[in-house]
Amino acid sequence: MESFYSRITKLLELKNPLPYSNFFDIINNVLNILDSEKNNYRLPTKNNELGSLLDFTESKNLPLIIIPDIHARTDFIKNILDFKISPELKFLNNKKSISIFNALKQKKIRVICVGDALHTEVNTAQRWENIQEEFLEEIHTGPAMTAEAKECFSTLAALMMLKTFFPENFHFLKGNHENINNTTGNGNYAFRKLADEGQMLKTFIQEYYGDDILFLISCYEDSLPLIAATNNCVISHAEPRTSYTKEQLINAKNNSQIIEDLTWTSNGEAEENSAKQIINNLIPNNNKSKYFGGHRPVKTNYNSLQNDTFYQIHNPHKQNIVLIYNNRPFNPETDIIGVDQ
User: pLDDT digit string (tens) for 265-281?
Assistant: First the structure.
């Protein structure tokens, strides 16, 4: 039987967009996993729907890896899975180096991604210009768009499979790019940056795969949590615009303002101490806890805000991950490491 690792790496190395039948099965499998995730760390909403908060404060305190915005970087995912955690890092109680994939397999770590699986954003400006030219000629599955879609959906499918294989240890939060229908409303905004990326990718799906795949991806996005808390940190896609209680965060999927506030906040928009207040609401004994997010890019390894309480960790030109240790406070100078070295 083909190994989990081989199946995922084959996805990441595809030369063409994922075939329909494979994609359909992968999405259905992850939806089944997410639908059953009403448990002690993901409490249901008042309406018995999937809650928006992952609460690991009363779970086994595993070492944590935080992954910033991915944006269809298949090589980033491969490098994360292959990265060797050495004994010298003193991150795990390991006498030999162990890959992140094998640490997940052995349930030795927890991994939380801050969101934004889709839409390439580095070194693809020319591609998006070519896609615009294709669309002006009403060619929606041309070479440039197909190349973008191949990277986007290989990335998305790999992340779905990781959730399916390691449901309790691998988690993906909703970002502002988790909006496959490219809608404005319910906390979302239609997306465009280098081009009309959101609408273009949606149109490709409709023509290449069909509306059923588009619908299934939207169901997956609707099932994603918005925020996570462990014993020593909180994570959401963006800096929280204001503070919310635990009860509000559990029920956030039914509140468009909270969705927007956790996925779209720009620099300078957040209220003073919003991150600290959410930490206080979610984590007992939180004196040294930090809050992490991506969304707005940084030029170095991180940007600290709110009196060194909130850390932005998304540098689109680097393949960084964040190590959150069990036995000591976070140190931004040593605990943000590149996996492509």
Answer: 999 999 999 999 999 99
